[in-house]
């Protein structure tokens, strides 16, 4: 019998946690995670939308297939976590895209036509029908698109559960930052910056937007990732009140989304700014998010404003994640941009399979790191 490879995962955000979960629970590996603070990254800030339909973008159709598979995988992942006595906060019921202003109806029609061309199951609702589906909508709100495909998880709960599930199945955590990855005669060494070296057969880099800061990676990684700042709000309402569906609203061309959790938390997001790692919680962003939310869901004006958070989406030059082997057992699992909660299910499964079997699953090739080699 061949010995199982010794595997490390650098970064224990939702991507590292999902990869470690699949490696341990599905493939019987015992990965060692490295992270000085697993709950400090974007995975704890995000809204948790699993939205392949709403996030379908002109020119990014090859990502759509992966996002649809990721949404299906979340429902199996939820089952797998439950079987271990853990929760993901997965919530079905679907999502609405609402034209909140009179000038936004044309955008809804354009979007509907685009979804139809892509063959996505979306229903167009008249304004009154939309309000029947979601009574919390403003009386002035317009027509909407409804899809059952887009749902949500409570990303904070899911992230913690994936880590807990991985630990139950044999993974461990070393609370250290990795400064460098270096090739050794057999396998890889992780240097923690305090003089210690940790040796592994295979290493997965899943350090989110900071992945490129680790020394020893291919040169193109230095500039492959950039932070896209996002500010989100967490409101609190009495459980059972407030909206029940994920609502995306367009008002005067601006998008705001509202993600209600079962326990009464309502996530409102999000700004998207290219301003580096500026973590200021900006008054202007809070104002704009609330203003646009009250246009579509006026009842939320009575909610408790519980949290204002800033996170950094790990952006890439083509908006695609960076996934796959770069050299003899060194893998990248980074750059999930604005879809990282959704994609954690499928990228976790794929990376774990590639590490455990040595063969990359077919769908992963499109996102191979080698595509970045040719870029300036
Ligand atoms: C405002 C906002 C809203 C979002 N909403 C959604 C959404 O609704 N749906 C969706 O699918 N996605 C959403 N996203 C995107 C999603 O949050 C990210 O794509 C995802 O969280 C990335 O996960 P990650 O594990 O790669 O990174 P992170 O969660 O940032 O984790 C990276 C981890 O790596 C660790 N680390 C960094 N450097 C090192 C090192 N050198 N050594 C060891 N560890 C290291 C950090 O401590 C951190 O814990 C949103 C993002 C933002 C900012």
Structure characteristics:
single chain; about 375 residues; alpha/beta; 2 domains; elongated
Number of strands: 19
Q: What's the story with the biggest beta sheet?
A: 8 strands, mixed
Distinct small-molecule ligands in the complex: flavin-adenine dinucleotide
Q: Pick out the low-confidence regions.
A: none
Examine the coordinates and then state which fold CATH places here, giving the name of the CATH topology of the largest domain. FAD/NAD(P)-binding domain
Count of structural domains? 2
Number of helices: 7
Q: Element order, helices and strands?
A: EHEEHEHEHEEHEEEEEEEEEHEEEH
Proportion of residues in extended strands: 25-35%
Portion in helices? 25-40%
Q: Looking at this structure, what is the CATH superfamily of the largest domain?
A: FAD/NAD(P)-binding domain
Distance between the termini: 45 Å
> Which structural class fits the helix and strand makeup?
alpha/beta
Main β-sheet, spatial strand arrangement = 5-6-4-14-15-16-13-17
**Rg over CA atoms:** 21 Å
Overall residue-averaged pLDDT value: 96
Known CATH architecture of the largest domain:
3-Layer(bba) Sandwich
The quaternary organization reads as: single chain
Name of the CATH first level of the largest domain: Alpha Beta
What best-fitting shape do the alpha-carbon axes yield?
Answer: elongated
